[in-house]
Design brief:
Layout lengths: L1 E4 L5 H12 L3 E6 L4 H14 L3 E5 L5 H13 L6 E4 L16 H11 L1 H15 L5 E5 L14 H21 L5 E6 L16 H12 L11 E3 L8
Parallel strand pairs: 1-2, 1-4, 2-3, 4-5, 5-6, 6-7
Helix pairs in contact: 1-2, 1-7, 3-5, 4-6
The chain binds NADPH dihydro-nicotinamide-adenine-dinucleotide phosphate (NDP).
InterPro entries: Fungal_SecMetab_SDRs, NAD(P)-bd_dom_sf, SDR_fam
Pfam families: adh_short (PF00106)
Protein name: NAD(P)-dependent dehydrogenase (Short-subunit alcohol dehydrogenase family)
């Protein structure tokens, strides 16, 4: 399969690239910046996987960058079988509503919500040419209405919106048999999750690929699931 992953240089995104390559897929690893330090972990993977791994500049806040990334892939006459919208930020963590910086809130929406929209808007034609296609939007239980807590305002709100985006896309794309899921990846040991988190992001990545490869068929009422494909409460 040909799979695009955003934010693929570290954390869950890097683990998704690793699992995808181990499973024999061709990975387009989207990275915000092509600087050497950022791409270093992917360059190391390329030593083993060669042309099965392509690093593509893709800043999800920049529509021109997204369009340029589609052109890069089109030049290779390629199609896509999967898009994993993984890139995300968690900012304004400890802030109360009175303390929120609205520009930081806009940035969270720009990356977490508009990012997947930009990517799907421009990559859908390539995905439509693929096989057994899926779109995975990496969400969070922080975007569940039953899990409201004081704090993480922009993050929680931007992930609720991701869940609605996924439901809407599912309605729009199910007749084309394009599978859409919004996945809570669990609390993982990454820069975002910190080192006290219980989950290894490699395990989450494996669970996500089970769904992408349709080893696990998920047909729940709503598309919000955990990395095992179990229903999450919207
Ligand atoms: P990290 O902070 O470890 O990694 C975030 C990734 O997103 C980096 O590769 C980063 O790139 C990339 N990114 C940020 N902004 C942009 C942008 N504008 N364009 C392209 N890429 C960008 O996060 P995790 O790996 O932990 O999180 C991955 C996903 O999982 C996120 O969507 C997150 O919300 C979700 N999640 C994570 C949880 C956890 O416990 N970790 C829990 C629930 C959900 P760069 O290096 O350039 O900054």
């Amino acid at each position: 399969m040909d799979i695009l992953i955003t934010g693929a240089n570290r954390g869950l995104g890097l683990c998704l690239a690793k699992v995808g390559l181990e499973n024999g897929h061709h990975i387009y690893a989207g990275v915000r910046s092509l600087d050497e330090k950022t791409t270093e972990p992917l360059a190391q993977l390329q030593e083993t996987y060669k042309e099965k791994l392509e690093i593509v500049q893709l800043d999800v806040t920049d529509e021109n960058s997204v369009i340029a990334a589609t052109e890069t892939i089109k030049r290779k006459n390629a199609s896509l079988d999967g898009i994993i919208n993984n890139a995300g930020i968690l900012n304004e963590r400890e802030k109360t509503i009175e303390e929120l910086d609205l520009e930081a809130c806009k940035l969270a929406f720009d990356i977490n919500t508009l990012g997947p929209i930009r990517v799907i808007k421009h990559f859908l034609p390539l995905l439509e040419k693929g096989n057994k296609q899926s779109i995975i939007n990496v969400s969070s239980e922080a975007g569940s209405l039953t899990n409201a807590y004081a704090g993480d305002y922009p993050y929680g709100l931007s992930k609720v919106a991701v869940n609605m985006l996924s439901e809407k896309l599912n309605v729009y794309l199910r007749e084309k048999d394009i599978k859409v899921l919004s996945v809570h990846p669990g609390w993982m040991r990454t820069d975002m999750g910190g080192n006290k988190a219980p989950l290894d992001p490699m395990d989450t990545a494996t669970g996500i690929f089970d769904m992408v490869e349709r080893k696990k068929n998920v047909n729940n009422k709503y598309v919000f699931v955990d990395h095992h494909g179990r229903s999450m409460v919207i």
